[in-house]
Amino acid sequence: MDILEVVEELESLPASGTRVPGLRNKVLVDIDRIHGLGADLRNSVPANIQESDEILKQRDSIINQAYLEAQRIKKWAEQEALSMKAAALKEHQARVEESEIVAVAQSRARELDEKASGKAEVVIQDAQKRAYQTLNETESITNTMREGADRYAREVLFCLEEQLSNALAQVRKGIDSLNLEGEGQSFEGQVSASKGSEVPA
User: Fold this and answer.
1) CB atoms within 10 A of CB 41
2) Do 120 and 78 meet the contact criterion of CB atoms below 8 Å apart?
3) Which CATH code for domain 3-177?
4) Each residue's pLDDT tens digit, 109-137
């Protein structure tokens, strides 16, 4: 039984109780039923706490996935940079063998190396930017989910507290009314007994 079901049971107590004759808005309720609802309440609260823990675990899982994705993109960018540099060096070495175009080969090799380095830097920066963006979005989503879960738990507990207070107040009023009636009947009996014992003049 979850918290909402316990609240519904509490709300139904006045309707299912036995009305006290002569007293308005007073009913007798089964104390065992109240104890049972209290036990159900204690058992249902940890379920909401467990749901909050599950949300936090999902948050950690999303952050880990984002970190792994960032590492994968970074590794791919580094491999691309190494591949482009290797291609540039290979072309450079091939052109160095021709004496007429050594200067051109060196210039071309430098150009390719700079271009490869520039592209690798851009890829790495883009990967880091996407990783940070993913982490920030994940953090924002998980914070929103956690705040929503906490707000929901507080609202349910406040509602439950109010219902319990109302139910306990009704029970206390019923007990007080019964005590007052018992005291009134006892007093009337004492008065009757004292009148019967008086000796006429």
Assistant:
1) 19
2) yes
3) 1.10.287
4) 888 888 888 888 888 888 788 877 877 88
